[in-house]
Automatic annotation (TrEMBL):
Signal peptide annotation: none
Chain positions covered by the region annotation Disordered: 202-221
Species whose genome carries this gene: Mesorhabditis belari
Any one of the GO CC terms: ribonucleoprotein complex
Gene3D superfamilies referenced in this protein's UniProt entry, alphabetically: Growth arrest and DNA-damage-inducible proteins-interacting protein 1
Locations listed in the record: Mitochondrion; Nucleus
Name under which the protein is recorded: Large ribosomal subunit protein mL64
Length: 221
């Protein structure tokens, strides 16, 4: 007796006999259909048989072409050991692989690597020692450098105070000379201050000349 079913239904249940995920109608024997249904009902995880074997701690069978390659066989032997059924001879490198590894220097002699590691460790120790010595020297110099820095800050503050006093004096002189206050940030500020100085110098020269003339006249009389 034959029954009709959808292969997509069996595929979704995890059955390994479904060969495609496309929906199609095919006729299968009643006994096979019942076996499928029983297997699907027991497979509550919906995992494929291969994955169920791995989850149970078993060794899955070799099913795919990529599993037959040397690299896959080596990995399989490394995972499952002698029980994997892999020929141990496949795990050894070929002559071509050995020659390639020698050409690129993939493997090196133990004594050579040990010598290089010791040299690196010695260089690191020397670097750390030099750094510690530098820190100790800087620590000894720190009090003097700090005092010098603080003295410089005090000097800057004094110079700043002197500059502020001089600026206030210039502002006051300009205000008294021209009769109004002007912002020191104004570009005209320095021009007006220079004008004030020039006029004051000119007035001083004239006063000096007049004083000299008066003295000369007094001597003649």
């Amino acid at each position: 007796m034959l029954r009709v079913r959808l292969s997509k239904l069996l595929w979704s249940s995890g059955c390994k006999y479904a060969s495609t995920s496309e929906t199609r109608i095919e006729a299968i024997p009643e006994e096979t259909y019942d076996a499928y249904r029983q297997e699907a009902s027991l497979n509550v995880s919906h995992m494929k048989p291969r994955h169920r074997i791995i989850a149970a701690g078993g060794i899955p069978p070799v099913e795919f072409e990529w599993e037959k390659t040397r690299s896959a066989a080596r990995e399989r032997f490394g995972t499952y050991g002698l029980e994997s059924g892999v020929d141990v001879r496949q795990c050894w490198p070929t002559i071509e692989e050995i020659e390639e590894e020698k050409a690129i220097g993939f493997y090196r002699h133990y004594l050579e690597v040990l010598k290089e590691v010791k040299a690196l460790e010695a260089a690191k120790k020397k670097k750390d020692k030099d750094r510690i010595a530098e820190l100790e020297a800087n620590e000894k110099r720190y009090p003097g450098l700090l005092a010098k820095y603080q003295a410089g800050q005090v000097k800057k503050e004094k110079e700043k105070d002197a500059q502020e006093v001089a600026l206030e004096k210039k502002i006051r002189e300009i205000q008294e000379y021209f009769g109004y206050w002007i912002d020191p940030k104004d570009p005209r500020f320095e021009v007006m201050f220079q004008q004030k100085q020039d006029e004051e110098k000119k007035a001083a020269r004239q006063a000096k000349r007049l004083e000299k003339e008066k003295k000369t006249i007094a001597e003649v009389l």
